[in-house]
Amino acid sequence: MKKILYSIALLFTVTTLITACSTTKNASTASNAEVGRGKITGTWTVNSITYEGIVENAVQSVFDQGPASLFQGSTWTLTNSGKGIYALTNGTTQSIFWSMTNTGGTPEFAFKKINEGEKPKEVASGYRLLVENADGDNLTLKAPVQYGGGSGYIVYHMTKK
Questions:
Q1: Phi, psi for 76 (deg, rounded to 5)
Q2: What's the rounded Cα separation, in Å, for the pair 139 and 46?
Q3: Architecture of the domain spanning 37-160
Q4: pLDDT of amino acid 34
Q5: What angle do CA 127, 81, 35 make, to 5 degrees?
Q6: 22 to 19, 35, 54, 110, 116: CA distances (angstroms)
Q7: Would strands 75-78 and 83-87 be described as parallel, antiparallel, or unpaired?
Q8: Residue 89: closest CA among 128, 49, 119
Q9: pLDDT below 70 — which residues of the chain?
Q10: 98 and 82 in contact (C-beta within 8 Å)?
């Protein structure tokens, strides 16, 4: 009788462990979990810029740098450590510190502009862009903007170099 009770208890314990591990594994494979640093790291070129919900050139300055068209053809180099730099076609460069967040199930690319001698933790302001696509070769980032009492997006379409 003791062997039967022991066997049932052992079977119950093993079943509980398998179920618990299975649940944990499923939770870690959330719908947007595949968009991470690995798919963002690298050197990217902005191939085109489109607009959703706003007219082209309605926003005069993006990233406190200039019009969105200034970023056409720019190159963004993003390292796995979070350091990065973007270079505009006019020769202007800007050091950045970037990260990935997953707010409310939506992956976001965030960055802070870093000046010479500054540390990222010393910079309070930054920019957040929604990650619409990141497949390792193509990256599409949507920058939310306010315009005329409404909102829209400036969409940056990038390809990996």
A1: -115, 120
A2: 9
A3: Beta Barrel (2.40)
A4: 57
A5: 65
A6: 5, 22, 45, 32, 48
A7: antiparallel
A8: 49
A9: 1-34
A10: yes
8 Å CB contact between 141 and 157 = no
- pLDDT attached to residue 29: 29
The confidence score (pLDDT) of residue 25 equals 31
Sign of CA dihedral 87, 88, 91, 94: negative
**Domain boundaries in the chain?**
1-30, 37-160
Read off the tokens for 38: 């690995």
Strand 75-78 relative to strand 93-103, pairing:
unpaired
* pLDDT, tens digit (0-9, with 9 covering 90-100), for 6-24: 444 433 333 333 333 333 3
User: For the chain, what is the HEC assignment?
Assistant: CHHHHHHHHHHHHHHHHHHHHHHHHHHCCCCCCCCCHHHHCEEEEEEEEEEECCCCCCCCCECCCECHHHHCCCEEEECCCCEEEEECCCCCEEEEEEEEEEECCEEEEEEEEECCCCCHHHCCCCEEEEEEEECCCEEEEEEEEEECCEEEEEEEEEEEC
